[in-house]
Design brief:
This protein has about 375 residues and is an alpha/beta fold. It is about 50% helix and about 10% strand. The strands form three sheets. A six-stranded parallel β-sheet has the order 7-2-1-9-10-11, with helices on both faces. A three-stranded antiparallel β-sheet has the order 3-5-4. The protein starts with about 25 loop residues before the first helix and ends with a helix.
């Protein structure tokens, strides 16, 4: 084909022409201008989708896996995003919430040589999370704090993980206020902003272990988790919010938190028989490759086949950023918080949890009565 008869490039194509970096650019501008291709382009696209979530009023569900609270990313990234009204529901691991408590009750996590002697670390009562050190005294002190909370009257009933974490957040918030703790915990922050915290595998984490002991030694201990209601509450929140607005899922790290959040949609459509379109925007930061069949790395297109994401999401509003979270999240958070002109009004979804649950129960009963 001759040059003069060659069809024009599609109008959405962007010329790769980068201005020199001066060192004076806001991080948001840097992401738009200096990340042209490959993984860098996906970083740019992740930021664009974060901006879109905010500008268009999406309800944002954040999932968080990996040892992020020992690494301090809750203080540097997640809590500032919550305080600015950018996160409306959170799903994470019991481990992240357990390690979230340490600093608020007077302990510190330290950096350590990941190539040091693990035999020596064990002898000095130090546990290691790659390059982070936590002493056994910290674990025992945290266990004692959790046990004291769980024995109080507020916990002597069946609860979902969102209800459990809200009450723990209340207790930790009171403790932080009393002791003038300078940096709030993730649990207390979510309590203060009524952000529900879900956990898809609570028994796979130290936060739950103290309740196992109490169930054995305390006859008056009535706390129990209700996994069926846990799944119902997540699905119900997704249904009521997607009827009011578009919904986004920001997936930080994959794992159980990702799947527990995304399974809300097939719960609604496949199991309950209700109409649900799936998330309208899907952003994921994870280091895993997609071709091993694991859920941690599956993209929005694969999720769409399960009804977890909408067709429009797959076509225009999804990105898989293959990067370590500890690299990507601070950069994206800095850019987003620097770009944000003013805090958003909190959605306070925790206050709507019971109402959403009642609504879905009623709709499911009506549908199955008429079947």
């Amino acid at each position: 084909m001759s040059r003069k008869h060659r069809p024009p490039l599609q109008p959405h194509r962007r010329a790769v022409a980068l201005p020199p970096i001066t060192g004076q650019e806001p991080t948001a501008d840097l992401l738009h201008q200096a990340f042209p291709a490959f993984a860098g382009r996906n970083m740019r696209e992740a930021f664009r989708l974060m901006q879109k979530s905010v500008e268009e009023g999406f309800t944002i569900f954040l999932t968080l896996s990996g040892a992020m609270t020992p690494a301090g990313l809750h203080h540097s990234c997640i809590i500032p995003l919550i305080e600015k009204g950018l996160v409306h529901a959170l799903t994470t691991t019991g481990a992240n919430l357990y390690h979230d408590i340490h600093r608020s009750i007077g302990y510190q996590v330290h950096e350590i040589d990941p190539h040091g002697s693990d035999l020596a670390y064990r002898q000095e009562d130090t546990v290691r999370i790659y390059d982070l050190a936590i002493s056994n005294d910290i674990l025992l002190g945290t266990d004692q704090f959790i046990g004291g909370c769980l024995k109080s009257p507020a916990f002597q009933k069946p609860m979902t993980t969102a209800e459990l974490h809200h009450e723990l957040g209340r207790a930790l918030s009171q403790y932080e206020d009393k002791h003038k703790v300078p940096a709030p915990s993730l649990l207390a922050t979510c309590f203060r902003h009524d952000v529900p915290i879900f956990c898809g595998a609570p028994q796979d984490g130290s936060l739950f272990l103290e309740s196992v002991l109490l169930s054995i030694i305390e006859d008056s201990f009535k706390f129990r988790l209700e996994p069926e209601r846990d799944v119902l509450q997540m699905a119900a929140l997704q249904l009521v919010t997607q009827r009011e607005s578009q919904t986004a899922v920001w997936i930080v790290g994959g794992g159980v938190p990702k799947n527990f959040t995304l399974q809300g949609e097939p719960t609604l459509s496949q199991i309950f028989g209700l109409e649900a379109r799936g998330f309208d925007l899907d952003l994921q930061i994870c280091v895993d490759v997609a071709d091993n069949g694991a859920l941690s790395s599956c993209n929005a297109g694969e999720a769409h086949t399960w009804g977890k994401t909408s067709a429009e999401c797959v076509q225009t509003s999804s990105v898989y950023l293959r990067s370590d979270v500890t690299i990507a999240l601070p950069v994206l958070s800095h850019a987003l918080l620097g770009w944000l002109k003013q805090p958003l009004v909190p959605r306070r979804l925790m206050t709507r949890l019971a109402e959403a649950e009642r609504l879905v129960r009623a709709e499911v009963r009506e549908r199955h009565r008429l079947r």
